Amino acid sequence: MNQFxxxxxxxxxxxxNVAHLGDRMLAFIIDSLVIGLYTVxxxxxxxxxxxDFADMWALYMVLTLPAFLYxxxxxxxxxxxTIGKKIVSIRVVKLxxxxxxxxxxxxxxxxxIIDVMLTSGGCAVLAILIKGNGQRIGDxxxxxxxxxxxxxxxxKDTLHKELPKDYEPQYPQVTVFKDRxxxxxxxxxxxxxxxxxxxVIVSLSKRVKEVTGITTTLKPIDFIDIIIKDxxxxxxxx
Length: 238
Fold this sequence. Notes:
Distance between the termini: 36 Å
Radius of gyration: 27 Å
Order of helices and strands: EEHHHHHEHHHHEHHH
Number of domains: 2
Oligomer: single chain
Largest sheet: 2 strands, antiparallel
Helix content: 55-70%
Number of strands: 4
Shape: elongated
Number of helices: 12
């Protein structure tokens, strides 16, 4: 799954997962089925009414208007989602991560004529593959993209940490922590290391020492690393 970075107004960089092309196609199929089912129900309703053709045609145009405006209405009122998008957990956002306005959704909807209808989705697929950040032609014009809201968890994101077979723990006091507390410690530690935020690790080290009563001359970065390893050692033995 590709990622792109967005810069918020507060100069905070956030990684977003671009919606997979397969998810977008599946969402499109689901939405098409929803629109098709609604249209069929309208036709069946009209067929059951005893009215002349002219009135039936006028009523048909009115009743199928929600199907015609399906995408722009759904995305506007459900925070960038449609029924299909909700099912596959994807959503339309601005490139800066903010919520698109009606104008953005409207531009995407209008350009579906080129992206999807006239080219059977060929232009949309080609643009998404070329751009690499999830943008079809409508998205490029509207300054939007489609992101995945699925939570991707890897082994390194979990509390688990591989230890050498001959590993010897140093601090049995770590067992005072619960799993969720140690998970928080690990997440803060890993994030601080990635971002070079040493002050967070120092604060974390002080707090762990306060809770456990441990006294050590180790550097905070080494101390917290051992704390995480020791917790894994003792919990894996249970």
